[in-house]
Design a protein that fits this description.
homodimer, DNA-binding, two-stranded antiparallel ribbon, alpha/beta, globular
Amino acid sequence: MGSKTISSAVIKRLPRYYRYLGDLLENGIERISSKELSIRMKVTASQIRQDLNNFGGFGQQGYGYQVRYLHDEIGKILGLDAKQSMIIIGAGNLGTALAKYDFSHIGFRVAGIFDVRADVIGTEIGGIRVSSFDTVEVFLKEHDVQVAVLTIPRSNAHEAAERLVKAGIGAIWNFAPIDLQLDSNIVVKNVHLDESLMTLSYNNMHKGQERLSYSSYMDG
Amino acid sequence: MGSKTISSAVIKRLPRYYRYLGDLLENGIERISSKELSIRMKVTASQIRQDLNNFGGFGQQGYGYQVRYLHDEIGKILGLDAKQSMIIIGAGNLGTALAKYDFSHIGFRVAGIFDVRADVIGTEIGGIRVSSFDTVEVFLKEHDVQVAVLTIPRSNAHEAAERLVKAGIGAIWNFAPIDLQLDSNIVVKNVHLDESLMTLSYNNMHKGQERLSYSSYMDG
DNA sequence: TAGATTGTTAATCGATTAACAATC
DNA sequence: TAGATTGTTAATCGATTAACAATC
């Protein structure tokens, strides 16, 4: 069902559409054409129409797109209406920050926090008690969790990931600087902050040699 | 000088090469061919050779590449040998996590932390006193800072960015969910965590409809 | 209806992969 | 020298942009 493969380039643009449509909603704008949206977003109108038509015809000739409708449809495509849960593995600096961050606007909530360090287990972060990582298998049996957030040192990341997968996790948001080699049906999304900073460094050093600001919107 | 524009696709791959070469170094491996590296990294040998040859001929026919040399050269290309400083704007959850993170392995250090909230100013994070954002212009006059890290709410992000630019900042690592519209010679790198989570959500919902695990290495 | 704007096909552009001559 | 592997050119593939007929 619905099996046409959609390129990852398109998928990566969806959240940005979603954000711009949300902004339009907030400003009380009810309809928009691909042309006008393209001007605001600094992309081509062609690209917007091509992207959207991967998922269906959301617009109307001569009229454009209804902002509310398109916004909500993209939200559904992204699964934001699904009320998903995630657990955070590693209550260090980054794990703590993410645990305190409110992801409810995109349908996510933190269901649990885990760590291996005795001095961290039992402390509270954002109203959630940190549990021993040894209890994660039991926890996953008892709770419906879609995503595991990996904010632990590189050295432990692979072993932890394999345990999580064995315990039934299907998606990992990985902040450890490592390429996880897991079963092909496990979805992994890497956020490598140091690599992000390195590309910023490169672009800053080599400034002026290329048109930077214009093509940088999707380089998030 | 050296003005051939290099595509951002190539730039984004450099940090990953750097990481793999660092791993090889740690394992005492002194030379590697594009073929063998391609197997480890799950990319084509062609791509590795094409990418590297954007910057020069680092290898030797019949031999391959010297790991130490190539690693250090890529480090230089990325500017990691430059000892750069950054300031963190916004001492919230994420700003605090980044302030405590050790970026010295890629040549960066945190020179200052700024916030507008009276109850936060004066507290200490990772050994650095949080200063009033109103003092940032003076600070930037007195210190050589390459990067400003923006970890503040969306509503303040644009105004803060403009002040930083006016005060001489040339590069912004932006964590606020907004597209900053700044002078074209300002380098902006966005890290939109919620958008990252949304694409993870999408891939998880639509799992099995495409070959996910294989093409996901660069989707960080 | 006439004007506007979509959905979609065709053309272009750029990035990736393959091939191979150069050379260590 | 023979074998290996690069640097680089050529072929392929995929993504973006342009064009336009369909239609609201």
